[in-house]
């Protein structure tokens, strides 16, 4: 697996995705290999390594706004949701991204 799935695959168009919400700087789409019955990824279009390395507060607020909008809809539809990000060895793709998840694990 590439170190940056989002830059290498999603933003290049090599891996097609089903978009849910898109701004100039942030994309939310259905996970290509979902772990949960509802599994959405929210990712900045600019390469940022992780939550620990983001320095642009305006971009962070935009990301959080997209997460909030997506989470509100998932929460309404499912009655609950999770929002999470991974760091270090738990972070498969070294590009900041958040998961908005609900329902049961598929695996």
Task: Note down, in words, how this protein is organized.
The protein has 107 residues and is an alpha+beta fold. The chain has a single domain (5-105), classed as HIT-like (HIT family, subunit A), CATH 3.30.428. 26% of the residues lie in helices and 27% in strands. It has 2 helices and 5 strands.
Name a few traits of the molecule.
5-stranded antiparallel β-sheet; 5 strands; HIT family, subunit A; alpha+beta
N-to-C span = 19 Å
Please describe the biggest sheet, giving its number of strands, its sense, and whether it closes into a barrel: 5 strands, antiparallel
Tell me the quaternary state: single chain
Low-confidence regions: none
Q: What is the mean pLDDT?
A: 95
Structural class: alpha+beta
Spatially, the strands of the biggest sheet line up as: 1-2-3-5-4
Total beta-strand segments? 5
CATH architecture: 2-Layer Sandwich
**Helical stretch tally:** 2
The Rg value, from CA coordinates, equals 13 Å
Order of helices and strands: HEEEHEE
What is the CATH topology? HIT family, subunit A
* Total domain count: 1
Helix content: 25-40%
Measured by DSSP, the beta-strand proportion falls in 25-35%
What is the CATH class name? Alpha Beta
Superfamily (CATH H level) name: HIT-like
Shape summary:
globular
